[in-house]
Specification:
Blueprint lengths: L3 E9 L4 E9 L8 E6 L2 E6 L6 E9 H7 L2 E4 L6 E7 L2 E7 L9 E6 L2 E2 L11 H34 L4 E8 L3 E11 L4 E2 L6 E2 L4 H15 L27 H5 L16 H5 L18 H15 L3 H10 L13 H4 L6 E3 L12 E3 L13 E2 L1 H12 L12 H7 L4 E3 L2 E3 L4 E5 L2 E10 L2 E8 L4 E8 L5 H17 L4 H8 L13 E4 L2 E8 L2 E6 L2 E4 L1 E4 L2 E3 L10 E6 L2 E7 L2 E4 L21 E4 L7 E7 L2 E6 L4 E8 L2 E4 L10 E9 L2 E7 L3 E6 L3
Antiparallel strand pairs: 1-2, 2-5, 3-4, 4-5, 6-7, 7-8, 8-9, 9-10, 11-12, 11-23, 12-13, 14-17, 15-16, 18-19, 19-20, 20-21, 21-22, 22-23, 24-25, 24-32, 25-26, 26-27, 28-29, 29-30, 30-31, 31-32, 33-34, 33-40, 34-35, 35-36, 36-37, 37-38, 38-39, 39-40
């Protein structure tokens, strides 16, 4: 016979009170209709329907008096079981007593600054199986506390050196919220701290909501994901030389061949309308290319099928069934009242760096199926648990097992793993992970779940520090797994250590070019550029690509090139240096003379992209985004070029055209989707 108590959803209402949902489970034959929870400071009632095994309700404990007295009692009149709760070392511990006052070992639930961390059940020892299970659960307490401490220290250390407005994080398993933590400010100027109820933009994680809503209609038989989109949206049009029609299957998996979309028109049908001015780069279903406008189209599809606006669809089909009461289905002025301010780098025209101050990011009303939901980490943990349970919500299924398998199928390789329907999956240490990251104006997000272990992480923040949210989520999940396997200490060191550059000695060379020579040395596994009497420590962003902390290198990232595995060249913007002994490639390049009209700095009124630069290097043109990402341009026609965002793609889905030719220079650059950039004379 087992008796167990679960306390969940602890919230620090103020300095005096702690409120907690409580669930007590007993043998069915011993239950009354109500179980009274009597604590030393007052009475609370736990209730359930007759005959049910689980009783739930609210327990309210005055925190200060509770800490002073060190005791609170919960008693079940049905069986005489008494639970004693006492805080020891920051851990809320509870013991069970029968009428003879025998006890079982203590288990506990830790809270930090009023935020839920974790809960475990105490069990009466009746057989060997229960004893073993209890011992294992008790043994998890210390590794879990170590993991949380390590994670907390890692986040605080990062935020001390990297400007971030605020951050909220949640850890969960399949059944319960394990931990939440909040850092920084929702409003830096006003010094308003982030709390459990601070909302953040979840960014492109919204796409998973959109795909989920589509799959629900597919299950209901009201929508065919393999039917041409034009059968639902007759006005949908894109230039194509392929016979294969675009379907919802293609849109959800980013395999339709569409452009990314006009950022100025996202959140409206106009973005979809502009597709008629673009062309497919490949046959639908044959390759991956991330497309926001594809999800705009899915939102329009849902609205036509259901006869409701997209936010109302999300509210009715997802937020309400999951009881995500702190979430907003779109970014409106009502949600803005409780939304953390978004922040980006003061220098939004160049690769961001932790030394750059923050500036408030623009806000605007937004109702885009590609990224408009506002939420809290706690609510998003509820959403993630639904996926960890393969579509099962707390009260009913939101998705069948079959549809869940479709959403997590590996259709084609994508940016963050194999793409299914709105969800990326990847194998990590033999475990199947699902994920979706996000980035908006002033916000970044990450949702990550281990489907095999049933563990998950949500990270929401205001600022720009990618790929750290991705790294943080993976580190947190590794710590959770280690704690569950009772060896968190083996993971702690690797998470807390300063990042070292793999094979740093590869870069210790001298390179020569038109602008002189550059010498790199290595000290303590760090790559250092000797420049004008300075020792500049390079910061690795991804393999062979570095940020160089000096004004002369501010607008571009540095790239090392390899041949047969060895470093042979170094590139930065339009400049190029080679290793004289190792480089065996061409040293002069021929290109069309008219290309000299294109290099320069172009600015858009759109707050999304804002700045792009065109450079000419080694006979090739590149479009360089403000964050430093380089896209090689391939000629398609007069002053028109194609490019790809994904290096592994064989197609060129994106387009750029140069216009307004004055005195041998192009003064206007237009991207596919009608986003225009005007030349400026700043670097």
């Amino acid at each position: 016979m087992n008796y167990s108590l679960w306390l969940t959803s602890v919230t620090n209402m103020d300095e005096r009170d702690v409120r907690s949902s409580a669930v007590i489970s007993h043998p069915a034959e011993s239950l009354d209709e109500q179980v009274h929870a009597n604590n030393a400071m007052g009475n609370s009632t736990l209730s359930a329907k007759p005959g049910k095994r689980t009783f739930s309700g609210i327990v309210q404990i005055p925190l200060k008096r509770f800490e002073e007295s060190g005791v609170a009692l919960l008693e079940c009149p049905g069986c005489g079981k008494i639970w004693t709760l006492s805080p020891r070392g920051g851990v809320l511990r509870f013991k069970s007593h029968d009428k003879r006052q025998t006890t079982t070992p203590a288990t506990g639930m830790r809270w930090t600054e009023g935020n839920t961390n974790w809960g475990m059940a105490g069990e009466e020892k009746t057989d060997e199986t229960n004893t073993v299970g209890l011992q294992r659960r008790n043994s998890m307490i210390q590794p879990f506390e170590e993991a949380i401490h390590c994670l907390d220290q890692s986040i605080r250390q990062f935020m001390q050196t990297t400007p971030i407005g605020g951050l909220t994080l949640a850890l969960t398993d399949r059944h319960h919220l394990l931990h939440t933590a909040h850092y920084g400010y929702a409003d830096i100027a006003a010094q308003v701290p982030v709390t459990a109820e601070t909302r953040f933009e979840i960014c492109s994680i919204t796409k998973t909501f959109t795909s989920l809503a589509v799959m629900q209609q597919y299950e209901a038989g009201t929508l065919d994901i393999h039917a041409p989109i034009t059968s639902y949206l007759p006005w949908f049009q894109v230039q194509s030389t392929y016979e294969e029609p675009i379907t919802a299957h293609h849109l959800m998996s980013h395999t339709a061949g569409l452009v990314a979309g006009s950022e100025r028109s996202l959140g409206s049908r106009h973005a979809i309308w502009l597709l008629r001015e673009t062309e497919l780069a490949y046959a639908p279903g044959t390759a991956f290319h991330y497309s926001d406008v594809g999800y705009e189209t899915l939102g329009a599809l849902l609205e036509i099928v259901l006869g409701q606006r997209f936010p109302a669809i999300l509210q009715r089909q997802i937020l309400d069934p999951l009881e995500m009461r702190s979430s907003f289905p779109s970014n409106t002025y009502e949600g803005r009242k409780v939304l953390a301010l978004g922040y980006h780098s003061f220098y939004d025209d160049r690769p961001s760096h932790r030394s750059h101050p923050l500036a408030p990011a623009p806000w605007f009303e937004y109702e885009s199926p590609a990224g408009c939901v506002l939420s809290t980490a706690r609510d998003m943990a509820v959403y993630l648990r639904m996926y960890l349970n393969r579509g099962q919500g707390p009260h009913r299924r939101l998705l069948s097992e079959k549809s869940f398998d479709l959403m997590t199928q590996a259709i084609v390789p994508g940016t963050f793993g194999h793409i299914g329907y709105g969800l990326f999956t990847q194998k990590v240490d033999g475990h199947l992970y699902l994920n979706h990251p996000g980035g908006m104006l002033g916000y970044e997000s990450m949702m990550l779940g281990d489907l095999d272990e049933g563990l998950g992480v949500v990270v929401l923040l205001s600022g720009k520090c990618w790929p750290w949210p991705w790294q943080l989520a993976h580190s947190a999940l590794s710590l959770l797994r280690a704690a569950q396997e009772e060896h968190a200490g083996t993971v702690m060191a690797s998470v807390g250590e300063q990042k070292k550059i793999a094979n740093a000695s590869d870069y210790a060379e001298t390179f020569t070019g038109r602008d002189g020579s550059l010498t790199f040395i290595v000290e303590a596994d760090q790559v250092i550029l000797l420049y004008q009497g300075n020792h500049l420590i390079l910061e690795e962003l991804w393999p062979d690509t570095f940020f160089i902390p000096h004004p002369d290198f501010a607008y571009f990232l540095g790239h090392f090139g390899r041949a047969s595995g060895r470093i042979v060249e170094f590139e930065h913007g339009a400049s190029w240096w080679i290793h004289e002994q190792r480089y065996t490639g061409p040293r002069t390049f021929v290109y069309p003379a008219e290309w000299d009209a294109y290099p320069g700095h172009y600015v858009s009124e759109s707050p999304w992209t804002g700045h792009v630069r065109i450079i000419l290097r080694k006979g090739h043109l590149y479009l360089v985004e403000a964050e430093g990402y380089e896209r090689e341009l391939f000629p398609l026609g007069e002053r028109s070029f194609g490019y790809k965002r994904n290096r592994t793609s064989k197609a060129l889905p994106e387009r750029v055209r140069f216009d307004a030719m004055i005195d041998g220079q192009a003064w206007c650059l237009t991207l596919a989707g009608n986003d225009s950039f005007i030349r400026v004379r700043t670097p």
